[in-house]
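EI: anyone free to look at a 49-residue chain?
SC: sure, send it
EI:
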Amino acid sequence: MEAIEMKVQGYSGKDIAEKYCVNTNYITACISRAQKYLKKDDAFLRMIA
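SC: here you go
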């Protein structure tokens, strides 16, 4: 979730990856998977509405 927050705040995938000492592609994939999951989570969608 923190990586998604950072992305929303304007950090690049590269910046986030450097913070966690991982590959940029890994961060991009993790954020993508999390977004897909959250879009299907009714409780989350109600919370942000």
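EI: Residues 2-48 form one domain.
SC: 👍
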